[in-house]
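Practice record 12: protein with NAP.
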Amino acid sequence: MTDDASVAAALARIEADGGLDVLVNNAGIALRTGDGGAEALDGPSVLAVFDTNAAGIVRVTEAALPLLRRSANPVVVNVSSALGSFWAVHEPSRPASRFPSIVYGSSKAAVSMITVQSSRAVPDVKFNAVEPGITATELGGAGAENHPGRPAAESAEVVARLATIGPDGPTGTFQEDAGELGW
Ligand SMILES: NC(=O)c1ccc[n+]([C@@H]2O[C@H](COP(=O)([O-])OP(=O)(O)OC[C@H]3O[C@@H](n4cnc5c(N)ncnc54)[C@H](OP(=O)(O)O)[C@@H]3O)[C@@H](O)[C@H]2O)c1
């Protein structure tokens, strides 16, 4: 996500392997001070989070577009987060309203806008953002056993749903298990 040469090499290999119909921009990071500590707010940490979570999506998607455009039904899914939803962080019933996240949350708000703007700038490709749900993963670096949430296989279902939309599927939307999520 953060290395142009690595992205180019990956796409060259995908092209040689037959092409690309679906791009899922799943990689993302949250940086903490120490094991499970507070969110890291120093400049280099902020740049690293935005480089991976936001710039990385633009970098990879731009590099992938020539291949995607050769597909009959090109689809991009950007894995975002309710922590990047202005609606969810203002909605008391949502966990995102009770979990401060200055850097990670704002990087995911950027993912949402990248998704909307991409859907308008590139109408021949469908772009949707997904909130996968709170999931027990390595996010934040403290280990899956310390991260709350459901198994990754359950959270992957909504990603798979948006990755497999047909030619009449949505574009420029933000989705979770139950359907569309407020921006
Ligand atoms: N867990 C949650 O509760 C939750 C909730 C909402 C949204 N999300 C989002 O879900 C997505 C997946 O995260 P996760 O929870 O599965 O966390 P994770 O277990 O930490 O996995 C993150 C993945 O991103 C990859 N990655 C990180 N930096 C990268 C880079 N520069 N280039 C390429 N790959 C890179 C990692 O690869 P390596 O292992 O090789 O470093 C790893 O496979 C993220 O976008 C995250 O923000 C997670």
